[in-house]
Design brief:
The structure holds 2 protein chains of 2 kinds.
Chain A (H helix, E strand, L loop, with lengths): L1 H13 L6 E7 L8 E11 L2 E10 L9 E6 L5 E9 L2 E4 L1 E4 H12 L6 E7 L2 E6 L8 E10 L1 E3 L2 E3 L21 E8 L5 E3 L2 E5 L5 E7 L5 E8 L10 E3 L2 E7 L4 E8 L5 E5 L2 E5 L2 E3 L4 H13 L5 H11 L6 E5 L2 H31 L13 E2 L5 E4 L6 E5 L5 E3 L1 E3 L2 E5 L9 E10 L5 E10 L7 E7 L2 E7 L6 E5 L5 E8 L2 E5 L5 E7 L5 E7 L3
Parallel strand pairs in A: 2-13, 16-23, 25-32
Antiparallel strand pairs in A: 1-4, 2-3, 3-10, 4-9, 5-6, 5-10, 7-24, 8-9, 8-24, 11-12, 12-15, 14-15, 16-17, 17-20, 18-21, 19-20, 21-22, 26-30, 27-28, 27-31, 29-30, 31-32, 33-34, 34-37, 35-36, 35-38, 36-37, 38-39
Chain B lengths: L1 H5 L11 E3 L4 E7 L2 E6 L2 E6 L2 E5 L5 E7 L2 E5 L3 E6 L2 E7 L16 E5 L2 E4 L2 E6 L2 E4 L11 E7 L2 E6 L2 E6 L2 E6 L3 E7 L2 E6 L4 E5 L4 E3 L12 E7 L2 E6 L2 E5 L3 E4 L9 E7 L2 E6 L4 E4 L5 E3 L10 E7 L3 E6 L4 E5 L2 E4 L7 E7 L2 E6 L2 E6 L2 E4 L7 E6 L5 E5 L2 E5 L9
Antiparallel strand pairs in B: 1-40, 2-3, 3-4, 4-5, 6-7, 7-8, 8-9, 10-11, 11-12, 12-13, 14-15, 15-16, 16-17, 18-19, 19-20, 20-21, 22-23, 23-24, 24-25, 26-27, 27-28, 28-29, 30-31, 31-32, 32-33, 34-35, 35-36, 36-37, 38-39, 39-40
The chains are: A alpha+beta, B mainly beta.
Amino acid sequence: MMRTSALAMMAAAACLGYSQHVEDVYKRDDLGPFKLKGVHVESTVIGPIVRTSTLLTYDNPYKTQTEACLNFSLPEAAALSGFAYYYGDEYVRGQLMDKAKAWFIYTAITSRDRDPGIMDQESPTSYHCQIYPLKVGFDLRIRLYTVGFLQPSKDVLRLPKPEVPVSAGYFDRQSGLGALDWNVRSTMSEEARKEGDDYTVPLPEEPVRAVAQRFKDGRVYVSGLMHVAKEDSGRSPTFAVLRQAKVVDLDDHTIAFMGWLRRNKKIAVRYHGQRVTVLPEKIGAGTDTARLWAQQVLANSTWRHGRDVLRFSLKYGVPSKLTALLAVPSSEMKLFREKEKHWQRESAEQRRRELERAREKRDWSQNRNQNWQSSGGGDPEIRIQIPGARKVQALLPDGRVLDLTFENGEWAGNFEIPAAVPEGAYPVQVVAHMPDGSIVTRSWTYRVDRTAPTGTYKFVTDGGKLLLEVRSEKGLSEVAAFCQDGTKWLLNEVAPGLYRGEAPRERSFTIVLKDQASNKGEIVCSLPR
Amino acid sequence: MLIAALILSQAPNVASGAWRSYEEVFDLARAGDTVYAATNGGLLRREGEQWKPVESPSALRAITSTSPLTVALADTRSFALVNGCWKPDGATGLSPKSVELAGLSTHVYCYLDAFAGTSDGLYEKVEGSWSRVSLPSDLPVQRPNGLAQIGKRFLVGGLGGLYMGTPGHWDQVSKEPVRQLFSVGQEAWVVYGSGAVDKLAPDEDKLFPDVWYGSAQRPWSACIGSVDDTLLFGGNGGWIERGKEVSEVYPPELDSDVVVAIAGRGSTRWVATQASGLFRYGAGKVRRWNPGNGLTDPWVTALCLDPPRGLMVGTATEGLFALNGDEVRSLDCPTKRITRLCLWSGRLVVGAMDGAWVRHGSDWEKLPTDGEETTALTALEDGSLAVSTASGIHFVSKASVPSTR
């Protein structure tokens, strides 16, 4: 794969750079060539730009499963706008997506000997395509969609002509270029004239010609050609009005430019002290001019994050180093989606297990065997460590036996304390069955408590500070004074059953006593006058 | 009584008036020719080859007599079947029972004829080997803590984890104990006992586990509420808001307290805590209500907006309050120990440790949940109300509550 890429890039660098140029089409197994059966080209001239659709048909004499590879290049000022292939007679169009995902899907499907095609970009002007396996008994048919500029050639503009060798393997090109079945039509410009094997249109009289096309993002994208006097060649023109303008030299006298506007209006181009204004000709909404601009942005900009490239590439439908065109027959894609769901479930389960492990590390119990020791009813949880136990059961006071489950070094389980259970202390016994047949037991109790705590209060002074002191049962979960403005004053247990804190500033307030079972006692008190 | 008669008569998605789990069989007894099984979901009677539920209290632990038929409950109460009615029969002590039976790996509580009652259901010995008997369980979990409906499927969460499906056809989604379920359109949010929050999109077959872990400062939630299109997740010392963007709020007043319920309207947030009462944010100065100024219990358990009466505030030990403007006042309510509040068919429903009630004008009508602890209240798509209790889920049809609004 790496070697293929390198060769393709070298070939791309060597090509003339004016047209679609197919480098090689070969079997991936033995690198032997496929023989060209025909090239059908449909070109549409729209002002200075040209849409081209090329159908390449190759003979497929192989009776075994074969993987075909194709490398081709495009001019610098052109963009690949689509790729498709035929699976038997089914036309399968490529969909631009994240390159990693595209290759993942391609690999997943080809591993089942099914038939996807993939095309990715090796450099801004060279592309690589793989299709596997070719349907036995059917030709290899690939369709490429591109958009580019008319090419300057002396005193005319020439349509970019696809160059496809009759037979080109990975290592050797055995013959010349194949003949084209080429249909050309023109809109917004003079009819293209056939000159030998080529088509041409006359040079426009005005030095600048541009078209403007609205894209789905609401902007109007402009593409144009500008004739430059010989003495100005090599200098970059400057653009007014046109935003983020990009320029590509087509030859010494002609440049292609692209940019965008909020709405179509006159643009100004300045070069060598001269200023030319032109109103781009409007063409129907579409993607052509946006893609030509986006291709240049992708090729010539510095990107901080890969995700930005991905987002930009997907927005404009232009391949980049992070995207690829994947063509998969609908039946295969459906199968893949089902498999993908299964993988996602597995992956989610894996992530879930990881997260559960992370959760369990959050120490909720502070080494207690049970997360509540006292309650009015509810569903406390037991967690206990008994190393080496084979099976652990909790014998609950209501007669229930709870099989605890082992997770990350602890035996755990939830049980229920019924809401109507009488007050009292209830024993919980845990029985662990050890591998040697012995039994290990642990026991503790929980209290069901529905009696509200009571208490008395008094004010004391300490170092000139007025303090509130409450006497109640020891170990209350919270003692606090609540004032009329809603402020809360916490009292701390300074001795068993003695709670003390700063006295609130208000004349009257309510002290709330809460025990471990959340029973609430209340004392209404007033500051002494 | 009106409600009892109309339970689920018009609820097409619900198989019966109550869903119960009969997956733990604590005792077996024969009364004449009839064999009874005491289970966590109630009493079962063998009819031919099938086991059928008998109207009885739930959370049974023993059959203490067969003449008259007398059962002991997990909370030690005892009930006897006299003239077709269950009557209290004092209290009884309970202790774990155990029978050693070869060939069964689960804990065996009891053995009668060829049947063994175990912690994993009922087993029958057929031709020398044990086979599990199918019991008419509608619920896959004991102590359901939440129910959500997504289309024709249900999500049930409880002590035994989270399940999705319909009665008798449940798939386990998670084995972690569930604290609360909250459905929004085609999605459901799950708060686990551990504080983790999962998002579930059943139609897309997607589960997003522990959504706040790694993305929130405090990835621990205790409750979910909503306001307009924004979800509110109450947690430790504050809350997370998930609207078009995610934001976290940790006010100093809530430091080291747990937000156990949260509600909102516009930019106003009412935040209920476990130890400091009720707070209001987003409407000028922060306001708080607690025993110092009329809300006599600082443990607020539930909130429910009931315009024009205002915000209904349920407390753990002091019953129901209404907050209107800045004024909080106590409301008449048949229970003091409120666990849940919900608005259903324009009426306030109160779930409590000792039952569930629906407000009818100035009166309250008790819902037929056997006075059990209410763990969740869910208004279902067909208009019925699901009342989850410690032993099952009870359904009440919309037609049972006449509208006065």
